[in-house]
Amino acid sequence: MIHTLEEPRAVPVEVRAYLAELVRRTGAVCGPRLVSVVAVGSLALGDYRHGRSDVDVTVVVDPSLPERSPRELASALAHPRLPCPAAGLELVVYPADRVAGPAAGAGYLLDLNTGALLPGKACFDATRSPSFWYVIDRSVAHQRGLTLYGRPAREAIAAPRRSDLLAAIRASLREHSDGEGHLADNRVLNGCRSVVFCRTGNWAAKRRAAREIAAAAAEFRPLVEAAVRSFERPRASALPLPAPEVRAFLAWAAERVDEAAGAAGS
Questions:
Q1: What's the whole-model pTM score?
Q2: What is the pLDDT of residues 68-80, one digit of tens each?
Q3: Based on the structure, what is the number of domains in the chain?
Q4: Of 156, 185, 217, at which residue does a domain stop?
């Protein structure tokens, strides 16, 4: 039997019915091999903005899941077959034995992006994907994941090793520095969140992390505050940010990650 959302009051009302149906359809495909369904990203960190944020979901399944099931699940959850009310759905399915320990690779069975504002993809070969986003998401899931069904996130998904996680954060900053495929405000705010994690060991919502960085690094305060103002607008009306300043900020953030990695290794 597929249960209703475990913590419904923590789920924004705009996506509550959608997530309940996502859990139901996932259970219908996976049956008793479904271990956990966990919200990550802005839903888990308490900073979901309707019309701007994606819905990020991690699914954990028994490793004996039939080979056809990931493709069936991708079809069952694809927008508009299941209309996504958020900007998009980013869903990753892992075998339970892969995420029970601190694995460093991508390791997924399905990586699905779908939605009105998100370029669609359904990938089934984890060896074709860079691993860093998956390592970061599993860290968020272990620390702050919002359990929608099944085993609690902290029990189902292990924390990555700190060295692997810092390497993943550094790789994410390199991608954001290139800028391709990412809004400028999101690049800056992810940089803020990365630095706050390195300093505190805790994942924070983007706007909370931005406040901390704006208070601590006065030279970047105007850029960070502009990124927050842009983030509070719909995606289609995001504000332009000065590219050289964004790159300079991300280079500064990368240095902070390198310092954390050096301290961890000493």
A1: 0.94
A2: 999 999 999 999 9
A3: 2
A4: 156
Domain encompassing residue 120: 8-156
Average pLDDT score, the chain: 94
| Alpha carbons 72 and 139: distance in angstroms, whole number | 27
Residues 84 and 173 in one domain: no
- Written as six digits, the tokens of 99 are 């995420």
The two structure tokens encoding residue 156: 């189902």
Query: Rounded CA gap, 191 and 253, in Å?
Result: 6
Q: Are residues 110 and 236 in the same domain?
A: no
State the amino acid at position 266 in one-letter form: S
Cα–Cα distance for residue pair 55/128, rounded to 1 Å: 23
Token pair recorded at residue 178: 């290139």
CA torsion sign, 177 to 181 to 184 to 187?
negative
Q: Which of 156, 179, 198 finishes a domain?
A: 156
Q: State the pairing for strand pair 34-40/146-150.
A: antiparallel
Residue keyed to tokens 């009306």 = 237
pLDDT, one tens digit per residue, over 79-97 is 999 999 999 999 999 999 9
Q: Are residues 147 and 203 in the same domain?
A: no
Phi then psi dihedrals of residue 89, to 5 deg: -115, 130
**Measuring CA to CA, which residue among 136, 250, 106, 138 is closest to residue 191?**
250
